[in-house]
């Protein structure tokens, strides 16, 4: 069983799963270390509570995670238990990259309006469209294939979380403290978000991170706020010592399970757990692509990929994101913490 790490201030660090539980909301792959500390029963509870599905094409996985690996993380407006046949929408697309030494993680947001080739836009015909259209045309498999073709990164797994999952995790933590960096008003509820640090319920936090229309930097602002939510919830989980509170840990697992669909590509969960137990909240870096505005041939406002963005994808493939981040400090979302 893994031991909790000790920080520079001498305080005991709770393991990764408990600290970064909302990565289950947005980043399930790091939903690991706390269950090791909390016991096999909770690991089994987590393993049996989430929905499993074949979400990505490719190999059947491997028995032990060795080296760097990458997960695709999607936010969806559809719950796994929805049987209507509607694929729903996915406006949150991120790549989570874990370094080869399994001591650092990077979260890279991909703009929903990025203009990309999609190989099947209906009736087997390809097209060029906004990347979030891939989910509408072909669900998670086509989205994963589109991201792989765009980035050259071979995905090792995928997590889909419904928007309700964010809400439930935050409420299970008793709410979180978020520092609003730009005044905005929700187009969904009319709620006004004023600059400063405030306590948010799950519904309020979800409302906040879904906004983009009233932000000066639009979808890039929304990406930053989503990353801010992840870090804030991670900090709250750590502050509460979630791994040493089995009752609360169990409550959070049960709260989020119905909202998650997971494909570990054949990797046994205990191997995934062990590979992540050395990562702490301070070992996570949030990155974004450059904001390159443009218009599609039919007049849509889009985002475009430039050489800097392509170099980011190269850095993922080469497991050299530390060098890339040092060379592009303005593309590190420091406000996400």
UniProtKB/TrEMBL annotation:
Q: Which residues cross the membrane?
A: none
Q: Where is the Cell envelope-related transcriptional attenuator domain?
A: 89-236
Q: Which InterPro entries match?
A: LytR/CpsA/Psr_CW_biosynth (IPR050922), LytR_CpsA_psr (IPR004474)
Highest taxon of the source? Answer: Bacteria
Q: Which family does it belong to?
A: Belongs to the LytR/CpsA/Psr (LCP) family.
Name of the protein in its database record: Transcriptional regulator
Q: Which organism is it from?
A: Actinocatenispora thailandica
């Amino acid at each position: 069983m893994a031991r909790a790490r000790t920080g520079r201030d001498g305080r005991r660090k709770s393991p990764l799963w408990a600290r970064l539980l909302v990565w289950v909301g947005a980043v399930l792959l790091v939903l690991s270390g706390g269950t090791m500390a909390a016991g096999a029963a909770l690991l089994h509870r987590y393993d049996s509570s989430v929905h499993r599905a074949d979400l990505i094409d490719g190999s059947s996985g491997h028995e032990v995670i060795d080296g760097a690996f990458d997960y695709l993380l999607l936010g969806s407006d559809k719950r796994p238990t929805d049987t209507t046949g509607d694929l729903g929408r996915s406006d949150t697309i991120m790549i989570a990259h874990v370094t080869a030494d399994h001591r650092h993680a990077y979260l890279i947001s991909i703009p929903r309006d990025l203009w990309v080739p999609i190989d099947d836009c209906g009736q087997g015909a390809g097209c060029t469209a906004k990347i979030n259209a891939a989910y509408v045309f072909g669900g998670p498999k086509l989205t994963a294939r589109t991201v792989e073709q765009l980035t050259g990164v071979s995905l090792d797994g995928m997590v889909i979380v419904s928007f309700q999952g964010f809400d439930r995790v935050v409420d299970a933590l008793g709410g979180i403290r978020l520092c609003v960096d730009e005044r905005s008003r929700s187009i969904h509820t009319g709620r006004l978000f004023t600059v400063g640090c405030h306590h948010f319920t799950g519904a309020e936090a979800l409302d906040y991170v879904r906004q983009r229309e009233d932000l000066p930097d639009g979808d890039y602002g929304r990406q930053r706020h989503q990353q801010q939510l992840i870090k804030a919830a991670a900090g709250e989980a750590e502050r509460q010592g979630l791994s040493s509170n089995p009752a609360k840990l169990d409550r959070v697992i049960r709260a989020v399970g119905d909202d998650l669909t997971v494909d570990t590509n054949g990797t046994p969960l205990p191997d995934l757990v062990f590979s992540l137990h050395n990562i702490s909240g301070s070992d996570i870096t949030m990155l974004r692509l450059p904001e390159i505005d443009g218009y599609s041939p039919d007049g849509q406002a889009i985002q475009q990929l430039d050489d800097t963005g392509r170099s980011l994808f190269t850095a993922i493939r080469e497991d050299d994101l530390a060098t890339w981040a040092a060379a592009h400090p303005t593309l590190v979302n420091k406000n996400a913490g």
